[in-house]
Specification:
globular; 18% strand; six-stranded mixed sheet; single chain; 214 residues; alpha/beta; 6 helices; disordered N terminus
């Protein structure tokens, strides 16, 4: 799998943006859960990962409410981070040991958002292509938000999840269902890992109506 090259830039013909935003910087408090706010520059020139998506907002809010559970985690890695919304929100909240990752085309945006929030030296940005051979230890915590959207990439994503999720790794996986194939991928996840649905989020009734799963 890792020997096969597959370009995964995804256009909006496959994933329609909830709102097509012009490039700009948003200030996010996540309904008052984060102060100071996260400053997130969004820019679609590198693909649809350049803006925030609903599952990222849901996951960030959930983890900000429970940030105490992550304070002793020595390493937190966000996969397919886009601009870094989830990982950077936790860093602004005071957590450390965070790495945000995505494709080469989004590396500049990730680094820009790290600097924008004064997190240079506390958060690192790296290129991590799904399906590639990885030479890293599994993180303590793996963050995955809105990664289920492009069916041809599902085998590569599963390969990467297998490589990153170790026996002691906790993975928080949040996605919005858009098509039937999405749930087939989740069935594969349930066969490969121990999967538990989050039931203790006060916003659960809201995001369930939006076909978001956590």
């Amino acid at each position: 799998m890792a020997d096969q090259e597959m370009h995964l830039d995804v256009g909006e013909d496959l994933v329609t943006s909830p709102i097509h935003k012009e490039a700009g910087t948003a200030s996010m408090t996540f309904d008052g859960l984060l102060q100071p706010p996260l400053l997130l520059h969004e820019d679609l020139k590198g693909g649809c990962g350049g803006q925030s998506w609903p599952a990222g907002m849901v996951l960030a809010k959930y983890l900000l409410r429970r940030r105490g559970l992550l304070e002793q985690s020595p390493s937190i890695l966000e996969l397919g981070a886009g601009g870094g919304l989830v990982g950077l929100s936790l860093a602004v909240a005071g957590l450390s040991g965070i790495t945000i990752t995505d494709q080469q085309v989004l590396l500049e945006l990730m680094r820009q958002n790290i600097s924008l929030n004064g997190l240079d030296g506390r958060v690192s940005a790296e290129v991590l292509d799904w399906g590639q051979q990885l030479e890293r230890n599994p993180p303590s915590v793996l963050l995955c938000a809105d990664l289920v959207y492009f069916e041809p990439a599902f085998p590569l994503l599963l390969t990467t999840l297998r490589a990153l999720i170790g026996p002691d790794t906790v993975c928080f996986f949040c996605f919005k269902r858009r098509r039937r194939a999405d749930m087939l991928f989740i069935k594969q996840l349930r066969k490969a890992f121990v999967v538990e649905d989050v039931e203790d989020d006060p916003d659960r009734p809201v995001w369930q109506r939006q076909r978001i799963f956590l």
